[in-house]
Amino acid sequence: MKTPLSKNEEANIRVGQQMTLTIKSLGINGEGIGYFKRKIVFVDKALPGEVIHAEVTEVRERYATARLLRIVERSAARTTPPCPVYAECGGCSLQHMDYQAQLASKQEIVVESLRKYAKLDNPPVAPTIGMDHPWGYRNKAQFQVGKQNGKLVAGLYQAGSHKLVGLESCQVQHEATTKIVQATRDILEELRIPAYDERKRTGVVRTIVARVAFVTGEAQVTLVTATPDIPRVKELILELRTRLPELIGISQNVNAQKTSVVFGDKTVTLWGKPSIAEKLGELSFDLSARAFFQLNPEQTKKLYDQVKQAAGLTGTELVLDLYCGTGTIGLWLAPYAREVRGIELIPEAVEDARRNAARNGAANASFHVGRAEVLMPKWAKQQGIRPDVVVVDPPRTGLDDALIRSLLQVKPKKIVYVSCNPSTLAKDMARMLGTYELVSVQPVDMFPHTAHVEVTVRLERKDTVQ
Ligand code: SAH
């Protein structure tokens, strides 16, 4: 008897093989997806609708990866990336695609996920809300420092590698942030304060983090160092203050570990204030060096407004803000609800959320440390707490199994699901669509020129939908 062929043998693909492919769609990392004898082939920088020539670089059981050699038929959406280091830097992945086409493909990715995992033929996905000017949107630059050819460079790693790409400018960053990084790098070089060398485990500075408040213009810089001491620190501070008058605080974070995690536990203020003031709509925030804040403030407002619209509040509701981080969604909704309760795992984030609530006079908002899947059912059982609206904004892994079960027990009239991963969103939907109706799905482009897709979904309990 003949043994069945594996997909690899069936497609007979090997590394180094060249092939012509028609690109059908975009993958979740922005790669083009084509099929060779029914086997899926990922080709970086190829666009849907294009016919391309490619060389296979990797063969796996379920897919192959190929390198783009030549474009045979070019997509009308192909455009010249403005960034000079786009080919090397791992920060963006869609700059070669026209912005309107990026928005359309992000909508399509959400539609396809819901078709595939939630078995919805025609999911109600609205066109992606984009930016009028999709550049200079990031309020924080977090650039690694290293030495290349005897010079200090600051930049980002190549995609999937540890090779540092030095950046002189970066079009997706707010100008103020790259200016701060460049000036800091120049000063470190002039004062001969060495970059940390990961392999040798010598040197001092690992990362430069610059953040600017879009509304107030206040800026902060944080140096992540491998050692508690920075040589010539007084001169460093003086130079930073002189050349960057927009700085209102200079901080140091110490991370002595051999790790790719950027921050260590200890942060000290070297000069000025520990935090900057920022506003988002009507809300004010104090952002310390380590405090989490959404990276694209302009789109965050649009995202939160979508959450507000989906929640449809009248002022009488009890709203739960699950996975609340520093409480920004809950605080955005608090003026329109009777009460807001947030749940978040990380105690520091909850402290920030409480401070933010006090700062904004949100007396009807409280924030609690814990696991959403534990606290929500506990409140329901012990205190009879029945939320009218539950907002969830989980990490990429989606909702915890236990949380879905308890949502289906607690059964709020409305659920607003904010997701940064269409696949886990659609899989979670599949489990909820017996009880809930999917009313609307709204993608919002938080990170233009990258493959990230953010979505708000409005679910209503079926017995309440007219
Ligand atoms: N809603 C926030 C950001 C949410 S990011 C905003 O708009 O800014 C997701 C958050 O979920 C993270 O802060 C993470 O710490 C938290 N988290 C992860 N697992 C959790 C769990 N099981 N219960 C509660 N919070 C959790």
Written overview of the protein:
- There is one protein chain.
- The chain starts with 6 loop residues before the first helix and ends in a 5-residue tail after the last strand.
- It is an alpha/beta fold.
- The protein has 10 helices and 21 strands.
- The protein has helices at residues 7-11, 99-118, 175-190, 233-243, 297-311, 328-333, 347-359, 372-383, 401-410, 422-432; strands at residues 18-26, 32-36, 39-43, 51-59, 63-73, 140-148, 151-157, 164-166, 205-212, 219-225, 247-254, 266-272, 275-280, 283-288, 318-322, 339-344, 365-369, 389-392, 414-419, 436-444, 454-461.
- Helix 2 packs parallel to helix 10 (422-432) and helix 8 runs parallel beside helix 9 (401-410).
- It has a 7-stranded mixed beta sheet with strand order 8-7-6-9-10-11-12, covered by helices on one side. Strands 17-16-15-18-19-21-20 form a 7-stranded mixed beta sheet, with helices on both faces.
